[in-house]
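Lecture notes, unit on protein representations.

Consider one protein chain, 353 amino acids long.
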Amino acid sequence: MPGWAAPWAAPRRAANDRLAFAGLGGAGGRPIDLPSTYSIVTALCVFGGRDAAHRCLAAGHRNGSLVLVELDAADGVGRTTVLSADGEITAVHHIADDRPYFASMGGSGPGGTLTVAGWGEQPLAVHALAGESIFAASRPAPGQPHRCCVGTTTGIRVADLSADAAWSAFHLRTQSDIVSTAFAQAPSVGYGGGRDGRIRLFDARVAGARHQPDRGLFAGAGCRHASAVHGLGAEDWLLASASMDGQIRIWDIRMAAGQRGPAALCATSFGDPSAAPAACRLGFDVRHGTVAAAGSDNQVRVWSLHSGQLVRCLPLAATTGSCTALVLPHAGDGPPALYLGQSDTVLAFRCDA
C-alpha cells in the first residue's frame, strides 16, 4: 500500500461481510442452461422477475447476441428471448419492470447503439451513435431516473431512457477513449475511466464544453492508473477502479488534496499485488458493500468495501478460460449472489440460505 493511502478500520463489519458470503460457493459454479449462441459472453445483468421466486438474466455476447431468460429459484431457465445487434455487446443494465437495455460496440462502419429490449423478438427502441464505438455503459442506482452513462471513442455521453425511447442528454469530449463508466450518488454526476489511465469526473448539469480538464476534483496527476481503467463502480462517496495491469484502487471523492485530487484509500489490489491478476473483471454489490474481481488465474475474489479485507475466494475451472463478464446483482433483502461468464457459458454462485 503506498505511503499516502489511508488505512481502513472496520474489523467488525468485515466479519459480518465474511459471514454473509460464507455460503457463496460450489465447485466452479452452477452452469445455467442458456440457448447457445456459440460466442463468448461479454456482459451480464440480473434483475428481479415477476415475483420473489424468479429472476431475469440478460447475457450479451461478442457476436452481438443478447439472450434474455427468466430463472427460477434453482436457476432453471423459463421463458427466453434472443435479440441481436451490430457488434459486440459491451454492457447490459436494467431499466424498469422486466425491460433491460444493452449497449453494442458497433461494427467497422456504423457506430454503436443503445437498445431497449423486452420479451418480444424485436427491440422496443434503438438509439444509434453515428461514427462512435461504445466501450462501456452504466446506470444510476435503483430508484434513480432511467438514464445511462456511455463511454465512447469521443468521450462520455449521458442518455435518458424510457420504455420505448432513448435520447442523448450530455456529451463531454475527451482526448482518450472512455472504456468504463459509473454514476456517483447523484444521477447527474459520474466518472469515466480512460484508455489513458485517467479517471474523469463529470456533471451532466453543466454543458460538456464548460468542463475544464485541467481543473476540478480528478484533475491531479496522482488520481490515475498506469494503464487503461476498464472497471469502475461506486457506492456512496467511494469509487472503485481497476486497470488492465491488475491494479484495484478505492477512492473517497470527498478527500480532495488540491491539484492531486482525492487520495486513494487503498491500492495495489487491497495491499496484495498477487490478489488481482492482469485483465480482471469487476462486479459491485452496493447493498452488501462488496467488490468482486476475477482474473486470469481463474479465481474470483470478493472484498469488503467497508474494510478492504478479502471475504471470499472462489475457484473457476481452468479448462474453460478466463472470466469474461461478472455481476453481483442487487438481491434486495435476499442473500448475495454472483454470476459470471466464462467463454460461452454463464455460471451462478448463490447462497442457498
